[in-house]
Design brief:
It contains 16 helices and 13 strands. It is an alpha+beta fold. Strands 6, 7, 8, 9, 10, 11, 12 and 13 form an eight-stranded mixed beta sheet that branches. It has a five-stranded mixed beta sheet with strand order 2-1-5-3-4, covered by helices on one side.
């Protein structure tokens, strides 16, 4: 259908030059659509699209939609109303009345005989185009390449209809001037198109028939929805347990529709089409009674590597009591849909590492600001390369230090401590190399302290919107920071907790096991002070 519209707009653009040129362009562009196969494809596309629109209204249990969804739906439903006169004056009139719907005939009909129809046709062009652009935008915005091309596609989306409307208005004004000069112009043009004085009235009847049928179908769908809801209210519905409270479930409604109907904000960038995964939820009690994900949902969940119990709110239709927890903020954007499963916020085993640069204050006092920044940027670059090379994740920057997570994407989190120890060795090796390179710039070599701990923490995306990072919070993080600070007291480069050392498989039989208190905790932590 969009290809058909593009053919029309392209031909309309040539009306800026002349009507004969536009006609010579329109004929080859329309030829594929006027054959039996082209007509069948076009009609099939229209009825599938139209039927899908009506079905989407009926199947929705809630009509509380986002503004862009309302705009697209409303424009889509208005298209048959705006195009009824045009369809009647072209293909239907050609088939039923034997008219020749040439540019000259249509322009005369729209700009001289019935000028208001010309305004309706111009409005229809804009409505069809905006409706299509909204659909394309919210489909493509879930593609990684789209942000780089959005500006160019947007410019094209503005240029195409502008040229078409300009051509339509320019040709229409020319027809009005010709009609003003020649009293027989309209009569002659209608005769050339095999139209009679009764043709406009017949076209109006055809158009009103289309409008009446379209309006009747919409009312039929809305009436069916009302009957279904009334029948539902007579029975005791299942309950959806949401953090905001229990919500009665409408039969056949998705979790997303239920939340919207009760006015509860929930992320859904793609409008409930299982494309963006921003509506992901964690199902709890009652989840075992849900049917397995169907094709679209299964592919989307596989794409993000979703954890067990993760589902898409736009695809889950509860038939019994169900408890859920949203996994992304209601303001989530398209890029948030690419966040891997499990990073929305879960409690899991993780290996945390803190790295701190010693003597950074003294460095700042002895060097000019840009020299300090140069040295620090070289330091952080080397540390980051060491983390990446050993399977870690650069989590956050902390002034003169940083935090890294190991085992974040591993199938077995127990691999984290071993990789973290490798990471510590890699950091110290790179630091030695950096000290050698910057020997002339440093009064004394750079030194670091590293703390490693392995335990449970809350891991996920956190932070302000559009600036979220993958990080972790909890006692594990506080303990790791405490271990790193103890490297100063013990005069060593690395302190690793007993649990992390055991999981990593380190040979610590000749090492002394130390113990220290952690701020805010009654229990102490046991650790080894090492110099790898």
């Amino acid at each position: 259908m969009l290809a058909f519209v593009l053919c029309h707009l392209t031909a309309h653009s040539f009306l800026l030059v002349s009507e004969p040129l536009a006609t010579s362009v329109l004929i080859p562009l329309m030829k594929p659509w006027r054959g039996a196969i082209g007509t069948a494809i076009l009609l099939t596309a229209f009825f599938v699209h139209y039927g899908n629109a009506l079905w989407s209204i009926y199947v929705r249990r809630s009509l509380r939609l986002k503004r862009w969804e309302w705009a697209q739906l409303a424009m889509g439903l208005c298209i048959p109303l705006f195009l009824a006169q045009h369809v009647a004056a072209t293909r239907i009139s050609e088939a039923a009345l034997g008219t020749d719907p040439s540019y000259a005939y249509i322009l005369t009909l729209y700009w001289v005989v019935s000028p208001h129809v010309g305004v309706i046709h111009a409005t229809a062009l804009l409505v069809v185009w905006i409706h299509a652009c909204i659909g394309l935008h919210f489909w493509l915005r879930t593609k990684r390449w789209y942000p780089d091309w959005r500006v160019y596609l947007g410019a094209l989306a503005l240029l195409w209809p502008t040229l078409a409307l300009s051509g339509f208005v320019s040709a229409g004004n020319q027809v009005r001037r010709d009609a003003a000069k020649d009293e027989k112009f309209v009569e002659r043009t209608l005769e050339d198109a095999n139209a009679t004085k009764d043709t406009p009235a017949a076209l109006k009847r055809m158009a009103w028939t289309i409008i009446g049928a379209h309006t009747g179908l919409i009312l039929l769908v809305l009436g069916a929805r009302a009957v279904r809801r009334r029948l539902h209210e007579r029975s005791r519905p299942p309950v959806l347990t949401h953090p905001s409270g229990p919500l009665p479930v409408f039969p056949g409604a998705t979790v997303l529709e239920i939340l919207r109907d009760y006015g509860i904000p929930h992320a859904s960038v793609c409008g409930g089409r299982a494309r963006c995964t921003t509506c992901r939820i964690q199902v709890g009690r009652g989840g075992e009674r849900l049917p397995p994900p169907q094709s679209l949902e299964a592919k989307a969940l596989e794409r993000i590597g979703a954890m067990p119990g993760t589902r898409l709110a736009c695809q889950v239709r509860p038939t019994s009591d169900l408890s859920i927890t949203p996994l992304l903020a209601a303001e989530a954007h398209a890029e948030d849909g690419f966040v891997p499963g499990g990073l929305e916020g879960t409690e899991r085993l993780i290996t945390c590492m803190f790295i701190d640069l010693r003597g950074s204050t003294t460095l700042g006092e002895a060097k000019l600001p840009y020299d300090v920044l140069f040295i620090l940027n070289r330091f952080f670059s080397e540390m980051n390369h060491a983390i990446e090379a050993t399977g870690g994740h650069y989590s956050q920057f902390t002034g003169d230090g940083l935090m890294a997570l190991y085992g974040l994407h591993a199938a077995d989190p127990a691999t984290g401590p071993r990789e973290a120890v490798r990471g510590a060795r890699e950091m110290l090796m790179r630091l030695d190399r950096l000290n050698a390179e910057l020997k002339g710039e440093l009064a004394k070599p750079l030194q670091i302290g590293i703390g490693i701990h392995y335990s449970e923490a809350i891991v996920g995306m956190m932070g302000p919107p559009r600036s979220m990072i993958t990080s972790a919070i909890g006692d594990t993080i506080n303990t790791t920071a405490r271990l790193e600070s103890l490297t100063k007291e013990y005069g060593c480069a690395l302190i690793i907790s007993r649990r992390a050392a055991e999981v990593a498989g380190l040979d610590v039989t000749v090492q002394t096991l130390h113990e220290a208190a952690v701020k805010g905790k009654a229990q102490t932590v046991q650790f080894y002070a090492l110099n790898p």
